[in-house]
Amino acid sequence: MEFFIISMLNGLSYGLLLFMLSSGLTLIFSMMGVLNFAHASFYMIGAYFGYTLTSLIGFWPALFVAPVLVGGCGVIFERLSLRKVHKFGHVPELLVTFGLSYIVYELVQLIWGRTAVEFNPPELLKGSAFTLINNATTGLQLIWGAAPAAMCSAADATIRIVCSPFPATRAFMMFVALLMLLSLWLLLTKTRIGLVIQAALTHPETVEALGHNVPRVFMLVFGAGTGLAGLAGVIGGSTFVTEPAMAATVGSVIFVVVVVGGMGSLSGAFLASVLIGVIQTFAIAFDYSFVSVSKDLGFQLSSDLQNNSFLKLTVSQVAPILPYLFLVLILIFRPKGLLGTREG
Amino acid sequence: MKSYQFKPYNVGRWLIWSLFAIVLIFAPLIFTSNLSGTMLAQMGIAIIACLSYNILLGQGGMLSFGHAVYTGLGSFVAIHALNSITAGTSQIPVSLLPLVGGFAGIGFAILLGYVTTKKSGTPFAMITLGVAELVFAMSLMFSEFFGGEAGISGNRVAGPTVWGISYGPQIQIYYLIAIYTFFCVALMYAFTQTPLGRILNAVRDNPERVEFIGYNTQRVRYFAFIIAGFFAGISGGLGALNFEIVTSEVVGAGRSGGYLLFTFVGGATFFFGPIIGGILMVLAFVLLSELTKAWLLYLGLLFLFMVMYAPGGIASLIMMNLRVAAFGKLKQIWVSYLGMFVTAFVALIGAGAMIEMVYHLQLNSALGNNLKFMGIVLNAKGVDSWFGSAFVMLTGLGLFEAIRRHFLIEWGDIQIEIEKEIKRREAA
Amino acid sequence: MSYALELKDLRKNFGKTEIIRGVNLAVNAGERIAIIGPNGAGKSTLFNLISGRFGPSSGEIFLNGQRIENKAPYEINRMGLSRSFQITNIFPKLSVFENLRCAVLWSLGYKYTFLKFLSGLKDANDLAEKYMTMIRLDKKRDLLAMNLTYAEQRALEIGITIAGGSNVILLDEPTAGMSRSETSRFINLIKEVTMGKTLLTVEHDMGVVFGLADKIAVVVYGEVIAFDTPEAVRSNAKVQEAYLGTQSAEEHAGGH
């Protein structure tokens, strides 16, 4: 039971991280029609900036400064490069961001090296947010913080006690993601600039004719989107690992999220992120394969079948391809995406 | 939008194709070193791969991030077929193995292409990315077919030797590749002159209108995808024979990205652009990577600049300048070209020096602070080395920018003169 | 005898807004119909519904007696209907000749073949030449379509539309943006190339309308309020009311 809750929470936190990234991507795509191939690169830059800034000014200030710096990089890129290819169409825009992802990957390796760097969370977040203790006699209990050793092992070996801690970093990730979601929603629906953005989403020329500086709005949205990615990077980098390959691992998943959720739909991105995050987290935890399940159920399989590489695969081994399988299935059965309205 | 209008030159088709064949035949006799041998073989493979990619990109307007799936799967099927020849279970001649790869390419393109071509434009690109990741992830899971970490190896000296050709020596495999290259290039060129090829161009230009002249746009793209898959598979099959080992990186994102980058840099808007791209790809991977560790960074920067300033690639630059030369105006701007080239080179040296110093600090710091760069000793920790390099780079950049602006004005004037000349000739 | 084109109680909603509110229309083969109406009345939407760009919310469309609503554009085209666009929709990077040749390929049965060379397709090439001469662009044969003048592009647009040999032609504001002289030349061209075919054209220019059409359909707020000969429509009270009065219409007939 506690396994289920912890895994669920882990899956949710990973899904929310994916959403932090894919929301910026969706915003940029909806506004400008540009699918920012380098979005995960900004995530990576955020992590590395966070790492360097933490060693200079501490984690908490870095948490605020790093996203701003990353957003600044985004703004500079938009101004210098993206804007120039805007007139060539959407394919060159995608290509330009593709080129940027190459360059960022190499620059990061150039500056910080090819191996992972030790980006550790601050003291406050190092422990557990809470611990679920499943004591065979007393049932399920929740203790804030880490559980003392005494509670986790019983003197009597027949009583089964399982302590499942939930890391504070993950809890913090969820907290920041939800906060971000809330502020984004408030910004878009309740403020004037949000109104302009929503209008420019579908009718940029009209908005420009009304006197708003649409190129500047684009630049700001691009900066905001990449800044969000940078924020996700600081948190993700300190929770997971900060290395040059981190952009690639998460990059393709967020594109899947955006297509599965429906291109241009924020709520779709949210749904798809959470879905994929939860499913993948659960899948990694399961060590069952077709063969082992049939054994458990009492079926006798021939030795040929038992050695078949397909059937021998455990769910956890298949976990990495689940998002892509999802993508293919959605495209076959529901090409618009889960909540999509545009054809893209 | 610049308009590229050029008149086809009056050289007979036969002349160009014969020249191509002659180059293919005599290249290894001119460049005789071992390194050249392997590079020429790889160039043939790369040319077919990039041309097949351009069926999608340049002719069909379909940006694919996963072309390596089809070349790679073609390689895997071919190497398994090779091993079955060695084991005696198959009678296919080794020379026809690339065709086996080609048919594998068709098969996978039929299977995966149906879902992929359901969309166009940006969603299409994303789907190709997803499918490529799917296949790559699977390649790590199924080790019987993909060979796990070690990959699958084979021996191309297998089966009966025909006319004394065993494919052991590099030169023999080169000529096999050359034959396939010639025929594939010819076939792919022929494709551009067929109804399907032309409608594919129409789909690229205006997919909506194509529907209104009676064509199912998705079908057109699907068929083009399959044809591209065929030639991709042939390229993969040749690769399997050439290297005699296939690992999962042949279906990886790096390889797909490479096809995209070099086809684009070569020039997607002209038929021969990807040929240039394929040649550059081999030169970069084999030679440039030896020269400097930052070669991927330089490549990325080159790509970025090409997208921004020369989206038609090197081929379009050549054609534009040929047009200028045809009107006799090249002598007006060659000085600017020279200036830009020199200043860009200077800037590159400055930047290169700094990059090499950073790499040195990172990787070779145990060897001390000094490194040799183009014959000069630099102190990776010395302020003067850094200052000097930065100064060189900034000067180069500044001068380049100044000359470039001047060049743009000159270029604009020349274009206007050319337009006037064309109108004059039309009216005459 | 069935009509060439028939619309039965056609309706189309975009979200909550009803754009087409029950249109009934019956067009005989060989007739020339002009569709007029104030801006926003739904004329282009009507064309989009007929040609399959999107499907109606309800109602039926019959082409030569067969149902075509909700079919894909290429299916409808293959059944004998062709349309042009208000915003020029040609193949910019292909030459004039190539544009027209592409337009004839399907109707000649070449489909998706890659086993024949374009240069060897005598019937396609001859047909493309014929249409090129018809729309008077034979001198610009090898010019890239994006380098033509505006009027030439509109002519090419018409050319692509009729080259497929369809019997029912829809022209969406063919003379939009043209000068007086270009317009009158264009009208003669349209008359010539659509001889014997059924023609529906959306038009704002009254001079064009009265010179070209056998019947006029007046569309206001998504409904057809009149469908009759030009003289009858002119004196129709409802039309006068909806269209700011026929006096203004006559005055404007010279000055669009």
Describe the protein's architecture and organization.
The complex is a heterotrimer of chains A (344), B (428) and C (256). Helices cover 69% and strands 6% of the residues of chain A. Chain A is mainly alpha-helical and 344 residues long. Chain A has a domain at 2-121 and 169-246 and 282-287. In chain A, strand 1 (128-135) and strand 2 form a beta hairpin. The longest helix of chain A is centred in the first third of the chain and has 31 residues, at 2-32. Chain B folds into 2 domains: 13-311, ABC transporter involved in vitamin B12 uptake, BtuC (Orthogonal Bundle), CATH 1.10.3470; 327-427. Helices cover 73% and strands 3% of the residues of chain B. Chain B is built from 16 helices and 4 strands. Chain B has a two-stranded antiparallel ribbon. A two-stranded antiparallel ribbon of chain B has the order 3-4. In chain B, helix 2 crosses helix 12 and helix 11 (253-266) crosses helix 12. Chain B starts with 12 loop residues before the first helix and ends with a helix. Chain C is of the alpha/beta class. Chain C contains 10 helices and 10 strands. Chain C has a 6-stranded mixed β-sheet with strand order 6-7-8-3-9-10, with helices on both faces. In chain C, strand 4 and strand 5 form a beta hairpin. Chain C starts with a strand and ends with a helix. Chains in contact: A-B, B-C. Chains A and B meet through helix 3, helix 4, helix 10 and helix 16 of A and helix 5, helix 11, helix 13 and helix 15 of B.
Question: What descriptive keywords fit this protein?
Answer:
heterotrimer; B: 428 residues; mainly alpha; ABC transporter involved in vitamin B12 uptake, BtuC; 2 domains; two-stranded antiparallel sheet; 16 helices; 4 strands; 73% helix; 3% strand; globular; disordered N terminus; C: 256 residues; alpha/beta; Rossmann fold; six-stranded mixed beta sheet; four-stranded antiparallel beta sheet; 10 strands; 23% strand
